[in-house]
TrEMBL record:
The lineage of its organism: Bacteria, Candidatus Eiseniibacteriota. Keywords: Isomerase, Metal-binding. Residues 4-132 form the VOC domain. It is an enzyme of class 5 (isomerase). NCBIfam families: metmalonyl_epim. InterPro entries: Glyas_Bleomycin-R_OHBP_Dase, MeMalonyl-CoA_epimerase, MMCE/EMCE_epimerase, VOC_core. PANTHER family: METHYLMALONYL-COA EPIMERASE (PTHR43048), METHYLMALONYL-COA EPIMERASE, MITOCHONDRIAL (PTHR43048:SF3). Belongs to the methylmalonyl-CoA epimerase family. Its EC number is 5.1.99.1. This is Methylmalonyl-CoA epimerase. It comes from Eiseniibacteriota bacterium. One of its GO terms (molecular function) is methylmalonyl-CoA epimerase activity. GO terms for biological process: L-methylmalonyl-CoA metabolic process.
Length: 145
């Protein structure tokens, strides 16, 4: 079951400039900053109710986010949906013809299991499924303690 929008990932070239907009101008709370080595980026989590905006800043010019920024500039990169059972959801979505970008979920921000689906099979939206490491009922998706 898909529970909620966990976060919206926003590709950012200049973290300071983006924080000026999302933290300072919008007044959102910066609840955590976290390197995500598996994706060669640093993510900044800004809480919006029960979801987050995640600013994605590349830490390596060869990262997916760096290439996205080169091609398309800053902007929305993906939408992440929180699920209760990622293995079951992946099977369900594959059966419906959606194509995952990897064989298996990997470790993403916040210690969550994550798997992306190809935008060509999801109506042009890069979708991420994520399952919290703690299985917390409130779906809190902040950084690890
Ligand atoms: Zn994400």
């Amino acid at each position: 079951m898909i529970r909620k929008i966990d976060h919206i990932g926003i590709a950012v070239a200049d973290a300071a400039a983006a924080l000026k907009v999302f933290r300072d101008a919008l007044g959102l709370e910066l609840v955590g900053t976290e390197p995500v080595p598996s994706q060669k980026l640093v993510s900044y989590h800004l809480r919006v109710g029960e979801s987050n905006l995640e600013l994605l800043v590349p830490s390596d010019p060869e990262s997916v986010i760096a290439r996205f920024l080169e091609k398309r500039g800053p902007g929305i990169h993906h939408i992440a949906l929180a699920v209760e059972d990622i293995a079951a959801e992946v099977e369900r979505m594959k059966a419906a013809g959606l194509q995952p970008l990897a064989e298996k979920p990997s470790l993403g921000a916040g210690g969550k299991q994550v798997l992306f689906f190809h935008p060509q099979t999801t109506g042009g939206v890069l979708l991420e499924l994520c399952q919290g490491s703690d299985g917390a009922e409130d779906g809190r998706s902040g950084p690890p303690a």
